[in-house]
């Protein structure tokens, strides 16, 4: 049919009082044709144009504009209305303004409608023949039960359709497009469907891009088919890990973990996408990448469902029992592993080289997975804050750190706002250490010490062993932290040093009454204090007896120096291997060394004070003063007389040493004995004859070292022998 505009005038009715005549222009097109396929016509010009509608359901659309190009309204003329009365060629059609559908005017249009075939325009095809072909095709598809997984016509029906199209001049492009129009209605994201669509569509697109052109009807079908194919391709790419050729629908309904294999439908989907789009254009590349990003978001969202209950409402500090707490952290650990597996699967798919080079699938999806996992971890830690590096928390720390480490080892690009395990847990780790420090310091308070007056098999106070067991457990707890972030060694060391100082202070406070008699032997002797101390000593008439609690204190300090603290220092220094090359590993243990120096000095002072007290006992009476005995023995020649004078001193020394042996462990006992003999041997050699000095050393050796057995005795005797030899030289 043809349409000829014989408009003598165009009447517009407005709400104004005066009606004015203006010049208008029209743009005509068929509803079935592309929007840019318009024909401009001027009312009253006598122009003529021939249109070829697809069917009676088509419409002729006329857009009316004023001289300035401003749209005035639209006319929609139905082809079915024209076909009902083909003799009525000149008609008035109403002009409406959308979207209000307001009547704004009318247009006088001359239309001549005919259904006769025009031999000069055979390229547009015949509506009657294509309708007949459609009927035959539909019957053939029903006869062969064409459905989702049965898409190919075969046998006599295929032959009949081929012969029908050839005889009635139905174009090859139309037969393929019409067949495609039925196929897309039963589309599935499967390899057989995608391959068939590619096979049918390829020659059609080659024709449309070549010298030949498609009819309006073919273009319309192609547009509809391409739109549905695009939807199916989007389904394939957005669910590329859920595709399953064994299912009728081609898509798994339940959520499954990734298998690490590329789906069979992925490769033909890429071929079909490349056929429909110019993959060198940025728009096509962005669209394809967008599909995979959507797939990653869908997979991530599905994984996150397992932990939604713990972050619901974003509430902080949810109260939960230990079982729920452990379950929550185990689910978060599983989430980290699941997201890690998703990215690893993308790497394996990428290594199949199915995707175009511009699709870097691992980096594309990892950016989404990492950011969403980081956000979920952050929200979870706020809602369920970890109170310490317990087993469930440590497992989550390890899973998070390993996730970050795996991304780096897979050469995934740095992701802004992605998972940073240290940044996520830093504040919590610092708080854990501080809380542990405060808790252990609280245990060191004098009113919290449980073991006052009790001693262990080592003759020490259980308080110290208990505290150092807690310190050892603390180091073990933080093993997983230090191995990954060794910089926390120094934070932990500072806390341990503070606790050790508190342990020493607590010991001194616990035994303050026992240490009080020793203070006058430790205080610095200056500003006249030496005289005051000596005066006080003279006034003291009771001999000093080493208390049992003092033995416990000295034994405890010795065990601290020789056993307990070296274990802590050794454990701490063993972490130096975790520090990267070039790090300051030599600084590890500096704070603990300061504590060692302090503790060793205190222990030495207390030991010297005990020795001094025992030495003072020998000077309380003239009969036990060694120097006095030697001076009074100058006139004596017989050794037996000298020994008789020293008998009382000998008894006192044996009694003192036996008591020390009872209250102190062997190492402390040996140290006190050595110090005691050194102190007893410090006589004024200038005022004594060398022969008496020699005799006194021999007596000390016989009376002291001869009456007790303890480690180091041979070395001690050798020292006294050397002294004796030096005295003999002096006598001669």
From TrEMBL:
This is MHD1 domain-containing protein. It comes from Aegilops tauschii subsp. strangulata.
């Amino acid at each position: 049919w043809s349409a000829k505009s014989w408009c003598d005038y165009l009447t517009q009715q407005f709400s104004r009082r005066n009606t004015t005549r203006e010049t208008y222009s029209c743009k005509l097109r068929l509803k079935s044709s592309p929007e840019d396929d318009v024909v401009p016509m001027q009312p009253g010009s006598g122009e003529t144009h021939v249109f070829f509608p697809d069917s009676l359901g088509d419409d002729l659309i006329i857009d009316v504009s004023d001289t300035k190009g401003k749209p005035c309204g639209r006319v929609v003329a139905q082809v079915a209305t024209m076909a009902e009365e083909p003799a009525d060629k000149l008609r008035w059609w109403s002009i409406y303004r959308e979207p209000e559908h307001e009547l704004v005017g009318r247009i006088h249009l001359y239309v001549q409608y005919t259904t006769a075939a025009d031999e000069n325009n055979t390229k547009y095809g015949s509506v009657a023949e294509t309708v007949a072909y459609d009927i035959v095709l539909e019957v053939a598809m029903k006869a062969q039960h064409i459905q989702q997984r049965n898409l190919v016509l075969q046998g006599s029906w295929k032959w009949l359709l081929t012969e029908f199209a050839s005889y009635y001049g139905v174009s090859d492009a139309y037969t393929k497009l019409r067949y495609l129009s039925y196929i897309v209605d039963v589309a599935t994201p499967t390899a057989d469907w995608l391959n068939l669509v590619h096979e049918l569509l390829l020659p059609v697109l080659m024709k449309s891009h070549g010298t030949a052109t498609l009819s309006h009807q073919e273009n319309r079908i192609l547009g509809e088919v391409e739109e549905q194919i695009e939807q199916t391709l989007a389904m394939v790419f957005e669910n590329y890990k859920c595709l399953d050729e064994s299912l009728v629908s081609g898509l798994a309904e339940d959520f499954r973990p990734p298998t690490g294999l590329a789906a069979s439908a992925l490769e033909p989907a890429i071929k079909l996408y490349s056929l429909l789009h110019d993959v060198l254009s940025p728009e096509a590349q962005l669209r394809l990448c967008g599909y995979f990003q959507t797939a990653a978001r869908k997979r991530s969202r599905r994984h996150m469902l397992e932990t939604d209950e713990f972050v619901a409402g974003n509430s902080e500090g949810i109260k939960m029992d230990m079982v729920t707490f452990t379950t929550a952290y185990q689910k978060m650990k599983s989430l980290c592993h699941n997201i890690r597996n998703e990215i690893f699967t993308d790497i394996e798919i990428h290594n199949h080289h199915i995707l175009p080079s511009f699709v870097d699938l691992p980096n594309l999806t990892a950016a989404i997975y990492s950011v969403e996992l980081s956000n979920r971890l952050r929200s979870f830690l706020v809602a369920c804050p970890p109170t310490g590096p317990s087993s469930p928390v440590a497992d989550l720390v390890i899973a998070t750190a390993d996730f970050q480490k795996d991304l780096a080892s897979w050469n995934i690009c740095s992701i802004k706002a992605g998972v940073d395990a240290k940044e996520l847990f830093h504040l919590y780790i610092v708080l854990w250490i501080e809380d542990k420090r405060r808790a252990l310091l609280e245990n060191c308070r004098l009113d919290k010490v449980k073991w006052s007056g009790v001693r262990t098999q080592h003759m020490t106070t259980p308080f110290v062993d208990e505290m150092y067991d807690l310190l050892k457990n603390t180091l073990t707890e933080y093993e997983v932290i230090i191995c990954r972030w060794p910089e926390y060694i120094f934070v932990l060391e500072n806390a341990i040093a503070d606790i050790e100082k508190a342990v020493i202070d607590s010991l001194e406070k616990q035994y303050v009454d026992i240490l009080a008699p020793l203070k006058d032997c430790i205080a610095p002797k200056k500003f006249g204090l030496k005289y005051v101390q000596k005066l006080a000593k003279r006034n003291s008439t009771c001999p000093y007896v080493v208390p049992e609690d003092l033995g416990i204190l000295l034994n405890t300090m010795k065990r601290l120096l020789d056993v307990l603290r070296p274990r802590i220092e050794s454990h701490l220094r063993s972490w130096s291997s975790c520090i990267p090359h070039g790090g300051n590993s030599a600084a590890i243990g500096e704070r603990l060394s300061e504590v060692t120096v302090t503790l060793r000095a205190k222990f030495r002072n207390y030991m010297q004070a005990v020795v001094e007290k025992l030495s003072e006992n020998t000077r309380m009476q003239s009969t036990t003063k060694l120097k006095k005995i030697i001076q009074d023995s100058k006139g004596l020649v017989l050794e037996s007389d000298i020994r008789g004078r020293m008998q009382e001193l000998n008894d006192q020394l044996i009694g003192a040493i036996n008591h020390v042996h009872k209250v102190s462990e062997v190492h402390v006992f040996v140290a006190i004995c050595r110090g005691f003999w050194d102190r007893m041997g410090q006589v004024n050699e200038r005022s004594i004859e060398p022969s008496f000095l020699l005799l006194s050393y021999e007596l000390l050796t016989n009376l002291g070292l001869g009456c007790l057995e303890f480690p180091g005795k041979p070395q001690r005797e050798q020292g006294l022998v050397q002294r004796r030899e030096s005295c003999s030289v002096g006598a001669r």
